[in-house]
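Morning run. Coffee first, then this:
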Amino acid sequence: MIRSIRYITLLVLLQFVTGISVLYAQSITSASGIVRDSVSGEPLSYVSVMFENSTIGAMTDDDGAFSLQNDKGLTRLVVSSLGYDNKVVNLKAGQKNNALNVLLRPTSFEIAEVVVKPKREKYSRKDNPAVELIKKVIEHKNDNRIEAKDEYQSEVYEKLSMSLDDFNPNLEKNKFLKKFKFIKNYLDTSEFNGKPILTISVRETISDQYYRKHPKAEKTITKAKRQQGIDKTLDDGGAITANLEEIFKGVNIFDNNINILLNRFVSPLSSTLAVSYYKYYIMDTVDVAGDKCVDLAFVPVNSQSYGFTGRLYITLDGNYAVKKFLLNTPANINLNWVDKLRIEQEFKRMPDSTWVLANENTYVNFYIVKGAQQLYAHQLRNFDKYQFDVQNADSIFGLLGPIHELPEATAQTDTFWIHNRHVPLKEKESALDDLLAQLRKVPAFNVIIKTAEILITGYIPTTADKDKSKFDFGPMNTTFSANHRGLPHACGRYDDGKPQPALVR
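And here it is:
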């Protein structure tokens, strides 16, 4: 409950300061409609709809409907599905292209000596080349996963950014909001859906991860850690992103089950349930970072089940290795406050032919209250410096607990981060401190910040410097209550953080 209050407070804070309207400084091209079979008129589900030459796209739902937008000047949609000719739809730039009726023409084509026929026959597992392919992938998965090694270590760079999603501030027409017109200089574009976003926080870590098969042990040693943005000011103890951390634990596609938000999903590579739980379709052959792969689409047999939709990219070298995958949670699955979730991982082959995880991206659109401002979170993980002979293994695996943080982790300099982060920060992410500095120049923002701090922590500091405050007044949610005599009373908090009696009237 406390975490939810903190989220809501943050939303109220930012909405009050900037306002939310329907205008954005840059031109947005949007498209929505239904994809149908040109012969039967039947709506087509799980059709890929992408902006041409981009990663911005979506899959149609059970009713064939889609909706997406971008602010990058992209005006051509590529619509593709198994057994149909691809279709390109030209859009009006900078406008809403609604109620599109996209008709796909059935066709037949040959992929890797497998002929896919256009007829709308009932899905069958028998003599289905896609099913035979996934069986081979599952059969070889234990050989192609890094856990086949006795031990290994790698360096991991992790970045978690949080933003206001579809952020459209009307900063020019509102007299009050003109004070904040500089915010438009900090707007960015979502990698997930192409919508405008305002990044409000970035958290980074650099860690060494260690694994040993026998006896099984996993250790993480954090070497560097930093936090920037507005939640650095408001988040007392890291609660702002506490719920997100459950999502961003990472997934292992080779496990039989994948846990997200305390929900168990069947993996598309499950050794026991995959073939009966999912439908598989061979879509194409593609080049993925230099490896020739089969593009294998999958959807749950039952659209109401806890299953993913997505793609598996399987190498054509006879090893049936997973080069890359995309996992999407179905739109009709209720995952608490999560609206949309996508996980992407890409693997690389080491000189000894071992396949290892190269990078992972997790994208989440979520909300606290239905109808309120939506938030967007993106976690990037990059893995490098793999070794299959752990140095000082006895001392490392002898450490108590799975996670350790070096004393100097939070003291690393900007120079250290410039030279050691695996992926450079985006321009708008690097400008977070500048954004916060400009916001603080506006007196109204400082008042809101102070009020938010009181609501979030529940206490009023008795000195201007919170670090020097020996006594705080609160907690505010129970400060003014009644004792058995009907007399109001208050409590305080000493610098050890423990609530103490403070005042009795």
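The chain has ten helices and 28 strands. Good start to the day.
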